[in-house]
Amino acid sequence: MRTIDLRSDTVTLPTEEMREAMRTAELGDDFYREDPTVNRLEALAAKKMGKEAALLTTSGTQANLVSVLSQTKRGQAVILEAEAHIYYYEGGAFSDVGGLIPILVKGHDGVMSPQDVESALRPPNSHFPPSPLVCIENSHNRAGGTVWSPAQMKALFDFAKDHKLNVHMDGARIFNSAVAQNLEVRELTRYADTLMFCLSKGLSAPIGSIVVGDRDFVDRARRYRAILGGGMRQAGVIAAAGIVAIEKMVDRLRDDHANARMLAKGISTIDGIAIDLNKVQTNMVVYDVSGLGIGGKEWVAKLNEAGVKAGALEAGRVRMVTHRGIEKEDIEFTLRVVEKAADESRRK
Ligand SMILES: Cc1ncc(COP(=O)(O)O)c(C=O)c1O
Q1: Which tens digit of pLDDT belongs to each residue from 72-92?
Q2: For ligand 1, atom 13, which residue shows the shortest CA distance?
Q3: Looking at the DSSP assignment, which residues form a beta bridge with residue 284?
Q4: Which backbone phi and psi does 215 adopt, to 5 degrees?
Q5: Which atom of ligand 1 is the closest one to the Cα of 137?
Q6: Given the CA of residue 200, which atom of ligand 1 is nearest to it?
Q7: Distance between CA 293 and CA 58 in Å, rounded?
Q8: What is the 3-state secondary structure (H, E, C) of 127-140?
Q9: What is the pLDDT of residue 31?
Q10: Ligand 1 centroid to 147 CA: how many Å?
């Protein structure tokens, strides 16, 4: 049976060009900084993001963790949006490993205004842990792939600088955000001191994320990566695919966004399913099936039987993510499956 996997853009497989680049990559020992392919990827990534230096990490989680550790001390606090991936999904690593305390701020579609963050600031006295870092997420996963505009980022960045805060951006899908807004990615990255982005999501590389920032920060992050067991040797086999990801795979994210839009519009016409089309801004489609009298998990199981894989969030919220493995015909098929499942649920 045909299976359409809309659980995440992390399911993308490497392209033939990536596999060939991996096979023929020039290699060395990256602990000695002698892997020419890793060095090339890190230089390319730093340039693309407009920062001094870059570091290849094994995963997005590791990239966020080394970024946060490099800008804080144990016992300090980190300001995060209440549904931030760093807080919600990364195993509490910043607390477990870093001894850090989260201060959560409720955003609007994942975006925090200076006023939102201001309300979280504590006066500098011994009652409170110092909070030197604010983390933002662009695009925002749990908000449904919503984007921060350059103006929103600038407002927060200026506020942060006025209050001596560093800004770290979880930019796992920063290229989705840039492409959706027709921007050069640097128009976004300039408003973050540090950021990470993933090679292994919509960009289709099999492994890896990148951390960027100034040279001192990246040196500290490199040390934390080693401590966490993320130091690699002939990592050029991974980096080779990452180079193809950055050079060749960004523009096609437009297709994923068009497919997400088509899927969302189709779903919006189905009785009993609630969806806010304004929130469908990149490659994610989040909708609510509570109106059909079915839970998200039950709904996802039902679609799965018909050959469509999706993700259940909580209660009736369901997420579908488009990516390189998904074509227009797959969206048409998915819409037929969703319509049939909705009909059956309504009749129950
Ligand atoms: C916004 C965001 N940040 C970080 C990550 C973590 O990436 P990884 O799964 O490579 O650890 C993800 C993964 O889905 C994500 O969506």
Answers
A1: 999 999 999 999 999 999 999
A2: 60
A3: 321
A4: -65, -40
A5: 1
A6: 10
A7: 41
A8: CCCCCCEEEEECCE
A9: 95
A10: 16
